[in-house]
Amino acid sequence: MKLYPLKFTPILKERLWGGTKLRDVLQKSITSDITGESWELSTVEGDVSVLANGELAGISLQELIHKYPNELLGKNVVQRFGNDFPILIKFIDAKQDLSIQLHPNDELAKRRHNSFGKTEMWYIMDADPNANLIVGFNTDVTKEVYQKSLEENTLLELLNYETVTEGDTFFINTGKIHAIGAGVLLAEIQQTSDVTYRIFDFNRKDKNGNLRELHTEMALDAIDYAKKDDFKVTYSTTQDTCNSMVSCPYFKTDFLTLTKTITLDLTARDSFTIYMCVGGEATVVIENEAVAIRKGETVLIPAAAAKVSLQTLGAKLLEVTI
């Protein structure tokens, strides 16, 4: 495999709740005023990323994996996940509140949907004043209390609200009720899965005047009803080094705030590496092949790369590996 930093064409998604920050803040090529998501790296069926640069341009991420599984993903990743790309990378812009939802764990998702569950994390890139997220409950509840709140339209009284600013980071494990609030632009890292149980949507109607489907019954056995404070991620912002943010069985994410060029040894990693630029700009170099990225862009480094040089005078990066 020709080794170079791989950039893919974003897959843009219009959403009922979408806005213009993906265009106005991240400079995505968008004309719509309701674009809610930019899928940066995906092998979800029907939404597979296509390589945009270099001599392999035009090949899909799935094709690359089938041709070069060990070189692209890493032997360890192939042993665990086969020829499936195990994570999905997005930028999300919420002009309106997203629906309140949760995701099943691996066991439940496999049994019901032949899919992985969805563990995810959020890094806040931009937030309007007083913008917030919903994460979990504000008190311990039972299934019966939860069901009663749906019947009486009082669910919102049981939920935990978190006001957010740039740099805030949240880890959303399976079963945890959550929603992105209006005015939030974030980077999302998640297991490759599109299984979502929507439990409340503020009684909104879609463009055809229909209420969106809710998954009330399926959600009952998937919800974690306990009040927990395990979601807010604390991390160091020490300059010019990798600062650990999240480490879970599905992905590991570090935060890099760079003021100068650094070179990282990747030989012991046995995994692909992803850089999401969440601030500034940088040039990513492997094997003397260079690719520029700026805020809102993503690059994939094949597992076969021995080292990577990050050249910058100022950048904030999320580094994602398995």
Task: Provide a descriptive summary of the structure in words.
The protein is mainly beta and 322 residues long. Helices cover 14% and strands 39% of the residues. The longest helix is centred in the middle third of the chain and has 9 residues, at 143-151. The two termini are 20 Å apart.
Question: How would you summarize what this structure contains?
Answer:
The chain is mostly beta strands and 322 residues long.
Helix count equals 7
Shape: globular
Rg, please? 20 Å
Question: What does the main sheet amount to?
Answer: 7 strands, antiparallel
* Strands, count: 20
Regions with little confidence, pLDDT below 50 for 5+ residues: none
Helix content: 10-25%
Mean pLDDT value: 95
- Please identify the structural class as seen in this structure: mainly beta
Share in β-strands: 35-45%
H/E series: EHEEEHHHEEHEEHEEEEEHEEEEEEE
Q: Could you give the distance between the termini?
A: 20 Å
How do the strands and helices of this protein lay out in sequence?
Elements: E1 11-19, H1 21-24, E2 35-41, E3 43-44, E4 47-48, H2 61-67, H3 69-73, H4 75-81, E5 87-94, E6 100-102, H5 106-113, E7 120-127, E8 132-137, H6 143-151, E9 159-163, E10 169-172, E11 178-180, E12 184-191, E13 197-200, H7 216-220, E14 243-247, E15 252-258, E16 262-265, E17 273-286, E18 289-294, E19 298-301, E20 307-321
Give structural attributes.
322 residues, mainly beta
